[in-house]
Specification:
By secondary structure, the chain is of the alpha+beta class. The chain has helices at residues 28-31, 34-38, 45-51, 81-89, and strands spanning 2-8, 11-17, 40-44, 58-60, 65-67. The strands form two sheets. Strands 2-1-3 form a three-stranded antiparallel β-sheet. Strands 4-5 form a two-stranded antiparallel ribbon. Strand 4 and strand 5 (65-67) form a beta hairpin. The radius of gyration is 13 Å and the shape is globular.
Length: 91
């Protein structure tokens, strides 16, 4: 299944599945405005898992890659709470 990743200010803000039990039979492009969908990139679930893409990661459109911005205060050992809430909503 494809997942739409909303990019806001260069950061993966939200993961939206193409299909949702909340909106059965209604695609992302039918649920959201064209403007909103244009702020998203699409990845398969397999690609997200293989590339380790997580909410809060930075996105470089020029290379089409995701990365953590590492600072002294950043820890990437545990997913942040917003990511876990988002993913739990779509399981």
């Amino acid at each position: 299944m494809d997942i739409y990743i909303r990019i806001h200010e260069g950061i993966a803000e939200e993961f939206i599945p193409e299909e949702s039990n909340i909106f059965p039979g209604i695609t992302v492009t039918e649920r959201y405005s064209a403007e909103f969908v244009s702020s998203c990139i699409v990845r398969s679930e397999d690609a997200i898992q293989a590339q380790g893409i997580k909410q809060g990661m930075h996105y470089d459109a020029s290379t089409d890659t995701f990365y953590w911005e590492i600072t002294d205060e950043t820890s990437t050992t545990e997913p942040d709470e917003r990511y876990m809430q988002t993913m739990n909503n779509y399981e």
